[in-house]
Structures are given as structure tokens and as C-alpha cells.
């Protein structure tokens, strides 16, 4: 004999089951009508799961870089949607070696112009030949100077430096001083952060540099204080008054 409670429960659930089936059929029918061309994110352009390679206008070949670890949008308002025109890629991997007989591997900053047509393209590369380096950290000053340029700070990794570049939106070469590679050096001024160290140098550790290795960067809203994640120093570094005297404060982060 069937159980009346089970039978009544099944009948009560039937409208919900029917509604679920109808909703599923509607969603499947709707999904079938969605094509690549009318998805908002594609802006009407065909896409593939792998996307498209960004071209480099200096070579008209696909742009190259070793392990892009960060992308930072420029602070100007001349790009798509009224936001920054440029995207800066930080390539912090082993580096690109142009010729094993003449130069070492080179990390880089790649400047991508989002206004370029027919598609965004790399318009400048700043190459860092070993032991010069750029590691993860990159931040713009929040406001332009009187000459229209923005300060651009980049972590120098193994050499315990914070590079200080100038960035001019709209210029043919936005980042100065340039380092076009392969046989160039970065000649930008820098902030030395050896003062954050608490351990002695060792030839067996950090290539005989003090164990600091600045990586992540952040800047205060007024643009006068820089915050540095010291990867090998287990600390937060604070550089105050960066336009003038530059006072260094270390915040220990050991357990």
C-alpha cells in the first residue's frame, strides 16, 4: 500500500519541478541565441580562449616579456572610458636574452597604448640588464608635476633600489629616461633602501646585497609617502617625504 504522506508530498512538489524544467528550457534556448559577436566584453570582435597577441610597434612582431606579474593603469584621463591611456606591464621573470654572447637576461617594463589602432600595442620597452632589475612593484604618483609628468616608481629587486622614472602621457617615448636595449643600461635616479636591512650582507645570500629585495609598492594619496614590501627583509618599509629628505622607517613583520 502506498504511503499517503509520501504521495501528497510528491504532488505538492510537482509544480516546483515543472517550473524548474521550464526555467531550464528557457535558459538553454536563451544561451543558444548568444553568439561571440553580441557578448558585451568582446565589443563585437571575435575572440578565442587564448585571446590575441599584443604587437610591438618597434618590431611589428608579437610583444615579448618574461613573466608579466603586474599591470598598472596610467593616472591620466585620456584613454578608453575616460581612464588612463596606458597600461604598464612589469615583466619580472628570468628575462629576455637578446644575444647570449653579448648580454645577460633583461627584465622589462612594457608600455601598452590602449588608444592604438587597430588594437592596443606596446609602444615602448624599458630593459633592465642583469643585475639591474624590476620586480613586481610599480606605482604612479597620484598627481602630475607642473611640467605635466608623473613620477613612476619601480621596485629594483636584488639591488635594493626603488627606481624613479618620469612618465609623460602623449609622448612618443612616455617613460624617461629610456633604456631601449639590448646594450643599454637603466640610468634613472633611484632611492636606495639598504637602510631597511637588519642582517649583514653575505655572498651566499641575495648576490651579496643586503637581504631586503623590495617588491610590492603603494603610495599615499598625497604622493609623499611610499610603502615598500621588503621580500627578504620580512618587513614593511615606509619612505616618508620622498620629494625631499626621504626618511626611512622599518616595520618588522616577523612572527
Question: How would you sum up this structure, described in words?
Answer:
- The chain is mainly β and about 260 residues long.
- It is about 10% helix and about 35% strand.
- The strands form three sheets. It has a six-stranded mixed beta sheet with strand order 2-1-6-5-4-3, with no helix packed on it.
- β1 (about 55) and β2 (about 60) form a beta hairpin.
- The longest helix is centred in the N-terminal third of the chain and has 29 residues, at about 5-30.
Give a summary of the structure in a few sentences.
The chain has one helix and 15 strands; from the N terminus they run αβββββββββββββββ.
Topology:
Blueprint: H1 4-32, E1 55-56, E2 61-62, E3 68-73, E4 86-96, E5 106-113, E6 121-129, E7 138-140, E8 150-155, E9 161-167, E10 175-176, E11 190-192, E12 214-219, E13 225-230, E14 235-240, E15 247-252
Parallel strand pairs: 1-6
Antiparallel strand pairs: 1-2, 3-4, 4-5, 5-6, 7-8, 8-9, 9-10, 9-11, 12-13, 13-14, 14-15
Name the CATH architecture of the largest domain.
Answer: Beta Barrel
For the secondary structure, the number of strands is: 15
Query: What oligomeric state is this?
Result: single chain
Q: Structural class, please?
A: mainly beta
User: What string gives the helices and strands in order?
Assistant: HEEEEEEEEEEEEEEE
Task: Domain count, please report it.
Answer: 2
Characteristics of this structure?
255 residues, mainly beta, Thrombin, subunit H, 5-stranded antiparallel β-sheet, 1 helix, disordered N terminus
